[in-house]
Amino acid sequence: MKKILLAILLVSSITSFSQSNKEAFKSGEWLKYRMHYGFINAGYATINIKDTTKDGRSAYHVEGKGWTVGAFKWFFKVKDNYQTSFYKDNMKPYHFRRRVDEGGHIISRDIYFDQEGKTAFIKDHKKNTEKTVTIEDVQDMVSSFYYLRNQDVDNLNIGDELKLNMFFDYETYGFKMRYLGEEELKTTFGKIKCLKFRPLVKSGRVFEAEESLTIWITADKNKIPIRIEADLAVGSLKADLEGFKGLAHPFNIIFDN
Predict the structure, then answer these.
(1) Which residues form the domain of 197?
(2) Within 13 Å of residue 130, how many CA atoms lie on the same side as its CB?
(3) Which of 99, 148, 206, 249 is in the most buried spot, having the most CB atoms within 10 Å?
(4) What is the pTM of this model?
């Protein structure tokens, strides 16, 4: 459970890649996920978005939280908090905040993006260090969730691989993901038509193998992750959407005759 929130945000962020004309989300949207091994609850994660401003420009502020529960909490306590702020007009982040406590492993870090100047200023509060690195057209792991949800998936073909530059910690990672087609899932809310993807992630740091993640997103205008499966070094973790509010569009459920 060491990377519980990282897993859900990482795979949630990679969903599509062609421009759309209408936002898939709005201020006030709130999503809650239940992480579990089989029937055993391991933890929960929430992510919500609100309006804000920066230097007179309209922006969004997002906060994602993750925590372990029950026996998992006593075995390996996780309490993660990720935040991002990005401009509405170009969907580019200007501030990323990471506060992590994973079994006593503490990370307290802020990243300030200068997209025009192509730099990222990283301040590590625990290590008391500062560093500036070169970037170009990047999203952080949370802003990418919203940036990519706001894209159009109508023209994707099975097997298509799409790319995104994501900045995390001190580096830019080139993520690819493969579209696997449509699938109907039985969920807590009913049967949902979904689009299925397989992000191709770098093995060794968090996940077991290059193709160890699978994600299903709703095949509606919201494009929210409905289910995530991740093969981790300690077993297979599944995350299911448990609650939501403030969606920008209707949540489509298939009713059987």
Answers:
(1) 4-245
(2) 3
(3) 148
(4) 0.85
